[in-house]
Amino acid sequence: MNVLVLGSGGREHALAWKIAQSSKCDSLYIAPGNAGTMQCGVNVEIDLNDFRALKNFCLDNRIHLVVVGPEDPLVNGIVDYFKDDIELKYIPIIGPSKAGAQLEGSKDFSKNFMEKYQIPTALYKTFDQSAIQDGLDYIGQQEAPIVLKADGLAAGKGVLICQSVEEAQSEFKKMLDGKFGDASAKVVVEEFLTGIEFSIFILTDGISYKVLPSAKDYKRVGEGDTGLNTGGMGAVSPVPFVDDELLSKVQERIIDPTIEGLKSENIDYRGFLYIGLMNVDGNPYVIEYNVRMGDPETEVVIPRIKTDLLELFDGIARRNLEKVVLEEVSETATTVVLASGGYPESYEKGKKIDGLDVNKGCTIFHAGTKRNNGHIETSGGRVLTVTALGNNIEEALELSNNCADQISFEGKYYRKDIGLDLV
Ligand code: AMP
Ligand code: GLY
Question: Which domain holds residue 230?
Answer without folding.
Answer: 196-422
